[in-house]
Amino acid sequence: LEKKDLSTVGDPFDAPTYNIPEKPVTFAEGASYSVVILAGLGVAALAGYSVFKELIFEPKEYKIFGKALARVQSDSQVTARIGYPITGYGNESRNRAARQRIPNRVWTDEDGVEHVEVNFYIRGPHGAGKVYSEMFKDNSDRTWKFMYLLVEFTASLQGQVMLESYIPA
């Protein structure tokens, strides 16, 4: 057995770097690396912004769904027909993701007024129905107002109740 003197072994942290040539990087190489890094950071920032926007800021269609559902839940005509509590959901499906997806349409009319239309299902202990709603953002006071809110009852309770209807002045 041959014993090696520890002092002859070089610093193990220097070993990987002594083979790298110290050639200067050209401007074009440096710039191309910078562009690739900036593009990667841009993609990461865009992904972060979209996640932040989805989780922190509530999308318009969910805000309108919440307002319409609250109005339906507080209406005595609806609670008299289908009972209380009333739950709202997007689609008639056993799939949870489909129930959470609210069918909607967002558009801006020729006057620059933003509209959001949502359709969803409601269910209470004594029945069910479908809600058709459209709201617009009033440019004078920047609040959302109902264009219409219609509840259509299904099964044995067939009929409709118009809860809101906007008639411009």
UniProtKB/TrEMBL annotation:
Q: Does the record bear Mitochondrion in its keywords? A: yes
Query: What is the membrane topology listed in the Swiss-Prot or TrEMBL record?
Result: Single-pass membrane protein
Q: What does this protein do?
A: Essential component of the TIM23 complex, a complex that mediates the translocation of transit peptide-containing proteins across the mitochondrial inner membrane.
Per its record, how is this protein called by name? Mitochondrial import inner membrane translocase subunit Tim21
Q: Which organism is it from?
A: Aegilops tauschii subsp. strangulata (Goatgrass)
User: What are its GO biological-process terms?
Assistant: protein import into mitochondrial matrix
Look up the domain of life of the source: Eukaryota
Q: Which UniProt keywords apply?
A: Membrane, Mitochondrion, Mitochondrion inner membrane, Protein transport, Transit peptide, Translocation, Transmembrane, Transmembrane helix, Transport
Record keywords: Protein transport included? Answer: yes
A single GO cellular-component term from the record reads: TIM23 mitochondrial import inner membrane translocase complex
Transmembrane stretches in the record are 31-52
Can you say where in the cell this protein is located? Mitochondrion inner membrane
> Its quaternary structure?
Component of the TIM23 complex.
Protein family according to the UniProt entry? Belongs to the TIM21 family.
